[in-house]
Each structure stands twice: as structure tokens, then as C-alpha cells.
Amino acid sequence: AVTLEKMGAVLIADGDIEPALASLEHALEVREEYDPVGRGTAIVLEKIGNALLALENIEAAEAAYIHSLTVTESLALADPGNTQLARDLSVIHQNLGELRLAQNDPEGALPHFLADAKIARRLSAGDPSRIEWAEDLIASEDRLGSAYWLIGALQEAEQCFARAYLSARKIGTAETSRAQQRDAASRAAQKLSLARFSLGDAIGALEAAETSAEDLRRAGDMVSNLGSALNNVAWYALFVGRADRAAEAAVEAIALEPAKLAYALNHAHALMFLGNDAAARELYLRHHGAVVGDTTWAKLVQDDFATMSNHGIETPFMAELLSDLEGK
């Protein structure tokens, strides 16, 4: 069985999914003959589910995952202190949750992500010094928060993202942290800021962005992440009456990555909020016609102004500027 599983892993790595599936199914036959409810059987079933999912056989993949879940649940119940089995169970719930998301069923994903997060929290609390458990917790809270976000449960999403950021920041600011961990912390901060802003907490959104920027500034080796964090600072500062801070953050971000037009846009917003209409207009019109990612500069301006309007921020200058952009 082990040889067949290794062969399946090699074939999957080479992109040969169908022969890999055949090898894994043969391994399952052997496992089920000698140990039908063992951990090895559960793991092979999970691998079969992954292979079936790669072949877009959703129904069969789900059946394999559920079979694996049933076996793993019985093993974990019989040995509740076994952290390896607990993590196996967590992974299976992750797979089933992701499968539900792929079927546009976030409500169906939620119970699995809740179970996953519950296990991750228990493992991390049981051994706080173990980085593996902490990183699992970050990923689990992020998955759960994203599922809540998709169903419109923003308060629950914010709470999950807050827990994810707390753990990610603890790891990312440690002296032994790696760039990947600092990146994870900055991404977690972005999600937390967005969730808070969506709940009407612009101050909380700004605080998370400022904390992230300061951490990245101290790290000194995450230029792109720092630029994005400063851009978030600039954006959220606009909504708490801190146009001066918005301008300062935007200028710092532009100095780091001059080609990022999103940074220039927040600088233009800050100039407008500061009452420097002439400088703001010149900057808004300077990039007219530019393509930014998969959209245009004019569309970005329009969308940002719509967000401001939704927050009660409207000025004659904004209407004039939109008219100017449309006329060009």
C-alpha cells in the first residue's frame, strides 16, 4: 500500500492524475483488506478525494472525503489526546469546506470551517510555542472569516480576521520571523481593516493598517507590503478626518513604488480633502486613460467617489471632476 501511495504521489506531481487515481485506489483496496478503519485508510481516501477533485469529479471526491472523515472521527474519538489525528480531522474538514465553496455553497462550507477552527484553536492553545499549530490557526481563522464574509456575517468575519491577525502578527514580528510569515501578517491586517471598515469602524480599520505599516517599516525588507499598508493607511485616514495623514502615507507609499497608480489616487483624494483642488485636479486628470490592473483609472476614481458618497462625503468638486473625466 505504501509503495502504491508513493507512486500515486509521484504521478500527481507529474500531472498524471488518472493513473495516480488508479494507484491510490489499488492502495485503498489493500488498506481496507487489512485495516479498514485505520489512519492509513483515512489518508488514502483523502488523497483519492484530492485526485477526483483534480479530475472535476465533485460527487465522487465528496464521497471519498466523507468516508475519510467518518474513519478519522472514530479514531479521534477513541484517542482524544492524539494531536496527529486531530490535525487529520482538521484537514478533512478543510477539504470538505473548500469543496462546498467550489460549489458556491458557503453556508454548507461553514460547519466544516467551524470544526476546523475549533480543532486549530485547541491545538494552538495546548502548545502555544509550536509554530505549526499557530500557522494552522491563522489559516483556519482566515478560512472561517472568509466564509462568514461570503454569507454577509460581517461581525463574525471581523472576529475571525482579528484572531488571525493577532496570531500572524505575533509570528511575523518575532526576531526569527521569515518573509513569508511577515507577508501573512500584512495580508491578515488588510482583511481585518476591510472588515472593520465594512462594519463602519473606520478608526479600527486605520489602527490595523497603521500597526501593520509600522511593523513592516521596522522589518525593512518588505517594500511592496509596506507600500500596500501605507496605501491602506491613506485610504482609511480619509474617512476619519485625517487628510493630512492620508497625504503623508500616500507620499511615502509613492516613494517606495512610484509605478503604483493606486497610491497616486489616494494622494489625489488627500489633496482634495485638504482643499488643494488645483493640485488634486491635475493629479486626477494626469492619469486619465491609464489602465490599472483589470480596470481603468477613471473607473477607480468613480468607484472611490461612490464609496465616499455612501459615507456621506460629497462635494461639488467631485461632481465636476467626474464630468471632466467623462469628457476626456
List the keywords.
two-stranded antiparallel ribbon; 2 strands; 1% strand; 328 residues; mainly alpha; single chain
Q: Care to describe what's here?
A:
- The protein is mainly α.
- 80% of the residues lie in helices and 1% in strands.
- It contains 16 helices and two strands.
- The chain has helices at residues 2-13, 17-34, 39-54, 58-78, 83-102, 106-126, 131-150, 154-172, 179-198, 202-219, 223-238, 243-256, 261-273, 277-286, 297-310, 316-327; strands at 291-292, 295-296.
- Strands 1-2 form a two-stranded antiparallel sheet.
- Helix 1 (2-13) runs antiparallel to helix 2 (17-34), helix 9 packs parallel to helix 11 and helix 12 (243-256) packs antiparallel against helix 13 (261-273).
- The longest helix is centred in the N-terminal third of the chain and has 21 residues, at 58-78.
- The protein is elongated, with a radius of gyration of 24 Å.
- The N and C termini lie far apart (68 Å).
C-alpha termini separation = 68 Å
Order of the strands making up the biggest sheet: 1-2
Output the radius of gyration. 24 Å
Q: Can you count the beta strands?
A: 2
Mean pLDDT across residues: 94
Give the SSE string.
HHHHHHHHHHHHHHEEHH
Helix count, per DSSP?
16
Coarse structural class: mainly alpha
**Multimeric state:** single chain
Shape: elongated
Specify the biggest β-sheet.
2 strands, antiparallel
Please indicate the percent range of residues in DSSP E strands (runs of 2 or more). Answer: under 5%
